Amino acid sequence: MTRVIGTMGDKLLGMLLKEDRAGACVPEHGTFCKCTNHVRYVFSCNGPCVKSGTC
Asked: What superkingdom heads the lineage (predicted)?
């Protein structure tokens, strides 16, 4: 029963996120991207740069 609930949860999450690929984060995850207007950006798990704080 727990396995069925977990599988249903995974399917619902997949529909919500619209992500076709599965697996680990990109190798660049967490590394510095750029600094613009005193805002620091790093690579997110999926690859695009996201705001992470100030620089």
From this structure: Bacteria
